[in-house]
C-alpha cells in the first residue's frame, strides 16, 4: 500500500509576525526550524521573536484594549467575530490536518477532524453573549442599587505548547475574546504552524487591529510576556516546572494566571471491572498523540495479584495489535513522537523502568521497519513500584505502568500518592460506587470506565497539575474581573 504524503500548507506569511492587524517583519534574522516527525526533514521555518518583537506585540495588544473598540463592543457584537473565526477553522480544516502530523505525530484522521469540534467551542463562547450574566442586579447591603459586573481582565498572554496547539489555543482565545480581552499568542517553536493559520483566520474575520497578535519565541523572550506590566493575565499550558516559574513571575506583580500543567493520572481498577474491556480502552487511548497528552491514564492501579497479571496480559495483547506508522497512512493507529528530544526522553524512562525492577511486558524499542522518524513502540510495564520514576514522573510518551494494590482503599491511596491531580478514572460496573470512589480521588477530572476529560464542563488540575480551569463557564471566569457597583438608585435599564 502506498502511503499518502502530506499536502504542503500555504502559509501566507511564515517569515513574519502578526502584530497590530498586520504581518510585520521580525527585528532579526534568527529563525526556528521545524522538522517533520516522520521524515526527519525540514518542512517549516518561522522567525524567532526578540525582545523588540515581543514589546511590539504587547504594545499592540495594550493599545487595542486601552484605546480600541474591542472591549467597548457589546458581547453580541464580539460574538459575530468569534463565530467567523469558527467558520474559518472549518474552512481550513485540511491545513490544520496537514500540520499537526508533521509537527507532533498526531494522526491525520484526528488532526483534520479536530477543527470542526473546536470550531463548535468558538460557537459556544459566542453563544454566551446571550446567556451568561456579565452584569447582575444585586441587593445592596446598606441601601441603594447594587450591580455585580464582570469585565474583561485586560491583555492576555496565551503561551501555547507544542502538543495539540489548536485545541489549547481554542480554550484560551475563545473565552478571552467574548470577555473583551485582547490576546498575544506565544506559539511554540516546535509547532508554530497552527498559530499561523489561526492568525490568518483572525485577519480574515476582520478583528480590530491588535485584538489577536502572534509571535514565536523561546523561553527567555517569553518571560518578557510574563513580566510586562501591560499584560494583565497569563494563560499557560505546559510542564509543571515551567508553570512554577510562570507562577512565581506572576506572583511578583500579582498578575492573574491560569496554569494547565502536568499529570500522572491513575485508572483505578475495582474488583468488578471488566479487565478485557478496560485494557482495550486504556491501551488504545494511550496511543492517541503517541501518549503525548497530559491527561493520559498512565498509572493502572489494580487490586489483587491475579487481576494485576490479567491486566498486564490484556494490555500487552492490545498493544500487540497497534499499527505504528506514518501518521498520514489510513491504517496507522499511532504515529511518531514529536522530536528526537521526545524520543530520547521516552527511551530514557524505559531504560530506567527496567533498571528499577519493573517488568517490561511489551515494547520499549523502535518498531520494526521504521528506521526513520521519531518512532517508539507502545510500552507496558508490570510490577511497577509506585515510588519509581516511571510511576511518578510525566513521561509524555506511550508508556503504561501497572501497579499492584492490596484492595480498594490501597488503590485509592496509590492513585492519590503523586504530586499531580489532573485526571483519573474508576473502572467498575456499579455507577453509584464509581461516584463514591470519585469523591475520594484528588483529581480535577474523574471518569467512569473511560478517559473522560470534558472541556464543555471544565478541565484543570488539583495539586501541581495547575491553577484554574479551561472550557465551559469555568473557563470563561478567569478572563473576567468582578466589579461591584453601588448606585443611589436603579439606572433606567433596571427600572
Characterize the structure shown.
By secondary structure, the chain is α/β, with parallel strands linked by helices. 38% of the residues lie in helices and 21% in strands. The chain is built from 15 helices and 22 strands. The strands form six sheets. Strands 14-15-16-13-12-18-19 form a seven-stranded mixed beta sheet, sandwiched between helices. Helix 8 links the parallel strand 10 and strand 11. Helix 2 packs antiparallel against helix 5, helix 2 packs across helix 6 and helix 3 packs across helix 4. 53% of the residues are buried. The mean pLDDT is 96.
Multimerization status:
single chain
DSSP strand content:
15-25%
The rounded distance between the terminal residues' Cα atoms is: 72 Å
What is the overall shape?
globular
Structure annotation, total helices: 15
- Order of strands, main sheet, comes to 14-15-16-13-12-18-19
Q: Largest sheet, described in full? A: 7 strands, mixed
Amino acid at each position: 500500500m502506498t502511503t499518502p504524503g502530506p499536502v504542503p500548507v500555504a502559509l501566507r506569511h511564515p517569515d513574519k509576525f502578526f502584530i497590530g492587524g498586520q504581518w510585520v517583519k521580525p527585528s532579526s534574522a534568527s529563525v526556528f526550524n521545524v522538522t517533520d516527525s516522520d521524515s526527519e526533514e525540514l518542512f517549516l521555518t518561522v522567525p524567532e521573536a526578540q525582545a523588540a518583537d515581543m514589546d511590539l506585540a504587547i504594545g499592540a495588544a495594550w493599545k487595542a484594549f486601552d484605546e480600541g473598540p474591542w472591549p467597548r463592543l457589546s458581547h453580541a457584537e464580539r460574538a459575530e467575530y468569534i463565530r467567523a473565526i469558527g467558520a474559518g477553522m472549518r474552512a481550513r480544516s485540511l491545513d490544520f490536518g496537514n500540520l499537526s502530523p508533521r509537527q507532533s505525530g498526531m494522526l491525520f484522521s484526528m488532526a483534520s477532524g479536530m477543527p470542526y469540534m473546536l470550531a463548535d467551542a468558538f460557537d459556544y463562547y459566542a453563544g454566551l453573549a446571550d446567556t451568561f450574566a456579565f452584569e447582575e442586579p444585586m441587593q445592596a447591603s446598606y441601601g441603594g442599587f447594587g450591580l455585580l459586573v464582570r469585565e474583561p481582565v485586560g491583555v492576555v498572554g496565551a503561551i501555547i505548547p507544542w502538543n495539540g496547539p489548536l485545541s489549547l489555543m481554542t480554550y484560551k482565545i475563545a473565552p478571552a475574546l467574548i470577555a473583551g480581552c485582547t490576546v498575544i499568542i506565544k506559539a511554540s517553536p516546535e509547532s508554530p504552524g497552527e498559530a499561523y493559520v489561526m492568525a490568518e483566520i483572525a485577519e480574515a474575520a476582520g478583528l480590530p487591529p491588535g485584538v489577536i497578535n502572534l509571535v514565536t519565541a523561546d523561553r527567555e523572550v517569553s518571560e518578557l510576556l510574563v513580566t510586562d506590566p501591560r499584560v494583565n493575565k497569563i494563560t499557560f499550558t505546559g510542564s509543571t516546572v515551567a508553570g512554577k516559574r510562570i507562577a512565581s513571575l506572576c506572583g511578583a506583580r500579582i498578575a492573574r494566571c491560569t496554569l494547565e500543567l502536568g499529570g500522572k493520572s491513575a485508572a483505578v481498577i475495582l474488583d468488578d471491572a471488566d479487565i478485557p474491556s478496560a485494557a482495550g480502552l486504556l491501551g488504545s487511548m494511550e496511543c492517541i498523540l503517541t501518549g503525548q497528552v497530559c491527561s493520559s491514564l498512565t498509572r493502572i492501579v489494580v487490586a489483587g495479584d491475579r487481576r494485576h497479571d490479567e491486566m498486564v496480559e490484556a494490555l500487552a495483547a492490545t498493544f500487540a495489535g497497534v499499527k505504528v506508522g506514518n501518521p498520514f497512512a489510513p491504517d496507522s493507529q499511532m504515529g511518531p513522537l514529536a522530536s528526537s528530544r521526545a524520543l530520547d526522553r521516552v527511551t530514557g524512562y524505559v531504560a530506567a523502568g527496567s533498571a528499577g525492577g519493573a517488568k517490561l511486558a511489551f515494547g520499549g524499542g523502535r518498531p520494526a521497519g521504521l528506521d526513520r522518524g521519531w518512532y517508539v513502540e507502545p510500552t507496558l510495564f508490570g510490577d511497577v513500584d509506585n515510588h519509581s520514576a516511571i510511576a511518578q514522573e510525566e513521561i509524555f510518551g506511550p508508556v503504561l505502568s501497572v501497579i499492584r494494590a492490596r484492595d480498594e482503599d490501597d488503590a485509592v491511596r496509590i492513585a492519590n500518592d503523586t504530586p499531580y491531580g489532573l485526571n483519573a478514572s474508576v473502572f467498575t460496573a456499579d455507577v453509584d460506587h464509581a461516584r463514591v470512589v470519585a469523591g475520594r480521588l484528588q483529581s480535577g477530572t474523574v471518569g467512569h470506565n473511560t478517559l473522560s476529560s470534558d472541556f464543555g464542563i471544565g478541565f484543570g488540575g488539583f495539586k501541581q497539575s495547575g491553577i484554574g480551569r479551561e472550557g465551559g463557564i469555568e473557563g470563561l471566569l478567569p478572563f473576567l474581573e468582578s466589579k461591584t457597583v453601588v448606585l443611589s438608585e436603579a439606572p433606567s435599564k433596571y427600572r
